[in-house]
Specification:
By secondary structure, this protein is α/β, with parallel strands linked by helices. It is built from 7 helices and 9 strands. 27% of the residues lie in helices and 24% in strands. InterPro entries: DHFR-like_dom_sf, RibDG_C, Riboflavin_Biosynth_HTPR.
Length: 228
């Protein structure tokens, strides 16, 4: 078994690189066809990871929506849903969030050493809190997931998590959907934040596939993540 899972980072953004606008309601950047494509990609993975900020802001279920895909997973001896994973630095998580209350698969919360015990008591069994070190180490998180049998991990945001994975050189594949409009609001969240990225002009990603989904464009890159 590899020392970490294969990491697939999935994101939809506007032409100018935003993943939402500044309005209270979540902006839908994708179409029904693309949501179904993402559901199909989820069904090929073992676990799905979002940051705690995404859990708070979007209250996602992170489930496989298609009953047929759920049944096919069960036929292969896999759980119908993915193991859910989140990273937190503040410990600000609500045990009533749909991350915890939906689906039968494990819910894992990686937290700093100094707050892991307190957070575990507050979540009261809603999810398993894992000590990720002080400060949390992404490589240790991935090693722990691999030890739990996670071979393929899907990362779905938000911007801080995208930045952490990409700047750490721990992304193998990037699936980036570009929506045909602009946001143009500097207060809105972007695909990534500032950072030093190994995917540089000297070490570019390799474009493997371009797919048209209506007026959306799916760009599939191999990001050159370090394996070990």
């Amino acid at each position: 078994m590899s020392d970490r899972p294969y990491v697939l980072l999935s994101c939809a953004m506007s032409v100018d690189g935003y993943i939402d606008d500044a309005a209270p309601e979540r902006l839908r950047l994708s179409s029904a066809a693309d949501f179904d494509r993402v559901d199909a990609v989820r069904a090929t993975c073992d676990a799905i990871l979002v940051g705690a900020g995404t859990v708070r802001a979007d209250d996602p279920k992170l489930l496989i929506r298609s009953q047929a895909r759920r049944e096919r997973r069960a036929e292969r001896g896999l759980p119908p849903d993915l193991t859910k994973v989140t990273l937190t630095w503040s410990g600000d998580l609500d045990p009533g969030a749909r991350f915890f209350t939906t689906g039968e698969s494990p819910k894992l919360v990686y937290a700093p050493s100094g707050m892991a015990a307190e957070l575990a008591a507050r979540l009261d069994g809603a999810g398993e809190v894992v000590d990720a070190g002080e400060p949390p180490e992404l490589a240790a998180v991935l090693a722990d997931l691999a030890a739990r049998g996670v071979r393929r991990l899907m990362v779905e945001g938000g911007g801080a998590v995208h930045t952490l994975f990409l700047t750490s050189g721990l992304v193998d594949e990037l699936q980036l959907v570009v929506a045909p409009f602009f946001i143009g609001d500097p207060s809105a969240p972007r695909f990534v934040r500032s950072g030093v990225f190994p995917q540089s002009p000297e070490r570019p990603m390799r474009l493997e596939e371009i797919t048209r989904i209506g007026d959306l464009a799916l760009l599939r890159y191999l990001a050159g993540g370090e394996r070990g």
